[in-house]
């Protein structure tokens, strides 16, 4: 008999009653260190008092009115985001997938408005994850997400991540845009070099293409800058954001330059809930914190400290940890053992982490963690690695160490 909740998730048998900062608590009072953060969503941790106050205040005033009317909180948020980014305008959504859908439609509409509707194709990259809609699974190109849903939506050409020659080779008269995650999260915490992003920007300018960035996971301070592309010193034409922008409340946005958005006139796109007063109040509260003076510098300091401890962890456990990768507080541990084994071992140590591609375990803590949480994470990681080493057969351990030294 089917479960009342559609069984599309392999859920862990844990129920949490409340959270505080980087910690989650079960009904029995067991405490878990949360380095999943809702998969890079809870940038300010659980129950952040400023976010709680903003949501509570707005809940007593107005929840939903639809986009038929002006929403002052959305107007304020849009103004603040345009002042803090490359963007001139934006469309508010409920999720990252919706923000990517908007970005894809916007890119196609741009070329249509320029009299070139045939330029609908988009170059994307192997290992990408852009969402679960029909368009975004086609953009990602991952067979496991495409299987069983019929012919993939046309218009996407995947090339190897970081391969500029491959990008150039696939550009044709129907190509209209390039879509890339500056740091692939689901794909294994793989960073596009800042030089590669600069090359893509130059190529788009040369060929009349739009550069679209997916910063759903790597944006909103996760890498130590407000958005990851700032490290490369470039600006996109369109950018999809979500996750951290709502700090745990469902909020997404598609940001764009005025020229890129020229085709998106009244009636071309819409959302019932996107930009609702509750979401806007929380997102504005998130910006109050992450755009405050010194916040990004603190994230950079914290991430440097965490990376030091992870380097020590790798040295201690070369049979388990093969590589430490990522940017800021979007960190990946590529493992010699199955990544799911490390996830389970960490759960036994009361620490929560998600997996990623390329046999990687992700560390996605709140951006507000400090020395206490870093030490707690190291202690749990050390214990989990020791636990796994004790279960490795000598020959397997020998091979793992040999591979780590290669």
TrEMBL record:
It is found in: Cytoplasm. Keywords: Amino-acid biosynthesis, Aminotransferase, Arginine biosynthesis, Cytoplasm, Pyridoxal phosphate, Transferase. Gene3D superfamilies: Aspartate Aminotransferase, domain 1, Type I PLP-dependent aspartate aminotransferase-like (Major domain). The keyword Transferase applies. GO terms for biological process: L-arginine biosynthetic process. One of its GO terms (molecular function) is identical protein binding. N(2)-acetyl-L-ornithine binds at residues 132, 271. Pyridoxal 5'-phosphate binds at residues 96-97, 129, 214-217, 272. Binds 1 pyridoxal phosphate per subunit. Its cofactor is pyridoxal 5'-phosphate. The keyword rRNA-binding does not apply. GO terms for cellular component: cytoplasm. The modification N6-(pyridoxal phosphate)lysine is found at residue 243. It comes from the Bacteria. Its EC number is 2.6.1.11. Pathway: Amino-acid biosynthesis; L-arginine biosynthesis; N(2)-acetyl-L-ornithine from L-glutamate: step 4/4. Signal peptide: none annotated. It catalyses: N(2)-acetyl-L-ornithine + 2-oxoglutarate = N-acetyl-L-glutamate 5-semialdehyde + L-glutamate. May also have succinyldiaminopimelate aminotransferase activity, thus carrying out the corresponding step in lysine biosynthesis. Belongs to the class-III pyridoxal-phosphate-dependent aminotransferase family. ArgD subfamily. PANTHER family: AMINOTRANSFERASE CLASS III (PTHR11986), SUCCINYLORNITHINE TRANSAMINASE (PTHR11986:SF113). Homodimer. This is Acetylornithine aminotransferase. It comes from Ancylobacter mangrovi. The lineage of its organism: Bacteria, Pseudomonadati, Pseudomonadota, Alphaproteobacteria, Hyphomicrobiales.
């Amino acid at each position: 008999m089917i479960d009342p909740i559609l069984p599309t998730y392999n859920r862990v048998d844990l129920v949490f009653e409340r959270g505080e900062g980087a910690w989650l608590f079960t009904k029995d009072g067991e405490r878990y260190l949360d380095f999943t953060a809702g998969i890079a969503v809870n940038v300010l941790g659980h129950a952040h008092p400023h976010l709680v106050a903003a949501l509570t205040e707005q809940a007593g005033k107005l929840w939903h009115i639809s986009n038929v009317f002006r929403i002052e909180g959305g107007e304020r948020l849009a103004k603040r985001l345009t002042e803090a980014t490359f963007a001139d305008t934006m469309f508010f959504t409920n999720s990252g997938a919706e923000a990517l859908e908007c970005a894809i439609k916007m890119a196609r509409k741009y070329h249509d408005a320029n009299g070139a509707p045939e330029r609908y194709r988009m170059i994307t990259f192997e290992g990408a994850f852009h969402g679960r809609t029909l368009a975004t699974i086609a953009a990602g190109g991952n067979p496991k997400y495409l299987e069983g849903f019929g012919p993939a939506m046309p218009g996407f050409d995947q090339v190897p991540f970081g391969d500029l020659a491959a990008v150039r080779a696939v550009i044709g008269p129907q190509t209209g845009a390039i879509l890339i995650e500056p740091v692939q999260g689901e794909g294994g915490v793989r960073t596009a070099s800042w030089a590669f992003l600069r090359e893509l920007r130059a190529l788009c300018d040369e060929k009349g293409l739009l550069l679209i960035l997916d910063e759903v996971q790597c944006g909103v301070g996760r890498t130590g800058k407000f958005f990851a592309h700032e490290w490369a010193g470039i600006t996109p034409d369109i950018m999809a954001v979500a996750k951290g922008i709502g700090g745990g409340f469902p909020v997404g946005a598609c940001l764009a330059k005025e020229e890129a958005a020229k085709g998106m006139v009244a009636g071309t796109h819409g959302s019932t809930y996107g930009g609702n007063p509750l979401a806007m109040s929380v997102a504005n509260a998130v910006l109050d914190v992450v755009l405050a003076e010194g916040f990004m510098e603190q994230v950079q300091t914290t991430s440097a400290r965490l990376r030091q401890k992870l380097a020590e962890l790798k040295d201690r456990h070369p049979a388990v940890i093969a590589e430490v990768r990522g940017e800021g507080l979007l960190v990946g541990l590529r493992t010699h053992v199955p990544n799911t084994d490390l996830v389970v071992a960490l759960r036994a140590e009361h620490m929560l982490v998600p997996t990623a591609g390329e046999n990687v375990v992700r560390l996605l803590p709140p951006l507000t963690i400090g020395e206490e949480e870093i030490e707690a994470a190291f202690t749990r990681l050390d214990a989990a690695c020791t636990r796994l080493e004790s279960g490795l057969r000598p020959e397997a351990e020998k091979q793992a160490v040999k591979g780590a030294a290669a």
